[in-house]
Amino acid sequence: MNYRQLTSALVPLYGRGEAQAIARIVYEEVFGLSLADVLLGRDEQLTLDERSKLENIASQLLKGTPVQHVLGYADFCGHRFCVGPDVLIPRPETERLVELCVDFCRRRMSCRVLDLGTGSGCIAVALALALPAAHVVGVDVSAAALRVARDNASRLCGGGVAFLHHDMLRVAALVAALRGVSAAAGSPCGGVAPAFDVIVSNPPYIRRSEAASMHANVVDHEPHIALFVPDDDALLFYRAIAATAAACLAPGGIVAVEVNASLAGATAALFSDMGFPARVVKDVFGRERFVVASQGHDDAHEAAHAAQDGAAAHLPQGVLAQQHAACGHEAREQYAQAQPPDGVE
User: Does one domain contain both 122 and 36?
Assistant: First the structure.
C-alpha cells in the first residue's frame, strides 16, 4: 500500500479532502515522510516492517478509528497530548478558549483557574504551561479521563495541575470539595471567599438528536459522557457552571466556555440571567463558538474583544495541527449542527 492507495481506501469513509489529510499525517508522523517525499515516490520504499505497520494502521482507520487514537496523541496549543477512547480529542477551535484565558490572566498579578470537565487535561495543562505562576485545578467526573489528564500533566508540566474527581453537576458538593484542595494548588475557595479568577469549560453540549448527523468516527469512538446532553435540557452544564461561578468566581473574574454554535445566544442569555453579563465570541472559522461572562460588563466585554481581535492571529501550526483543522473541524461542525467517588487526585 502506498500513499495514493491509502487515500483512495479512506475516501468512501471520510471524503477526499479529509482522506488526504489523514494519509499525509500517517506518512509524516509514523514514517517521517513529507508530502514532497511522497511526490518523489519514497512512500514506495517502505521496509517490510514499515509496510506491515502501515497495513495495521490502515485497518484501524478503515474501521473508523480516529487517526489521533491510532497515533495515541493529538497536538493542542503547541503541545502533544496523549489521547484515547476515554477522552475527547482536542480540537484546534478550542485553542481560542485557552488564548482568551491567557490574555485575561496576563493582565492580572496572579491567576487561579478552574477547568470544569477537564477530560484529557488539554485546557488545564496548556494554561499551566502558558501561565507558570497560575494555580490550575481540573475537575472531571470520569476517573479514566483523569488518569489521562494526570499523565499529560506529569509529562508536560511536571504535574503542575491539581485534579479533582467530582461531578460538576453536583454544585454544592463540588464547591465544598474545592475548599479542600491543598495549598499546593493555591487553596482555591478557602473558607467562604470566592477565589478563582477564571472558570473555563468545554462541557458536553451536543443534543442527543444531533448524533444521527454526526460522523461515525466521533459517535463510535469518543466518550458520550463528554459529548451529549438531553434535547430538553441542553444547557444543564452551563447552569451548573454559572452556579459554581456564583460561589467561586473572584471579583473581576471571568467565565469562559465553549458552546454549541446553534445555542450560543441562549447560553449567553443564561449567564446574563444568572447575574453574569455575557458576550458571544467567534472561533477562527467564524462560528459563534464561545461565551465570555463576568460579574461586570466591562470584564466580559474586554475579554471577548481581546479574543475576537486575535481570532485570526494564531492558526494551528504543524502538520498534525493542520490535520486537526482538516479532520477535526468537520466533527466539530457536526457538534454544532447535529459535542463516582469524590476526592482530590
Answer: no
One domain, residues 37 and 176: no
Domain that holds residue 160: 89-344
CATH number at residue 155: 3.40.50.150
* Residue 262 belongs to a domain: yes
- The b-or-e profile of 302-313 (16+ CB within 10 A means b, else e) is bbbebbbeebee
Name the pLDDT band for 339 (thresholds 50, 70, 90). very low
**Cα dist. 40→3, 26, 27, 33, 43 in Å?**
11, 17, 13, 10, 8
How far is Cα 342 from Cα 345, in angstroms, rounded to an integer?
9
- As a whole number, mean pLDDT of residues 9-27 equals 95
Cα 120 to chain centroid, rounded? 8
Task: Scan for cell 488526504, then name that residue.
Answer: 20
Question: φ, ψ for residue 196 (rounded to 5)?
Answer: -80, 130
- The secondary structure of residue 286, as a DSSP letter, is S
What is the tens place of the pLDDT at every residue in 85-109? 999 999 999 999 999 999 999 988 8
Give me the residue label for grid cell 478557602.
190
Residue 84 lies in a domain: no
**Which residue is listed with cell 483557574?**
113
Its pTM stands at: 0.85
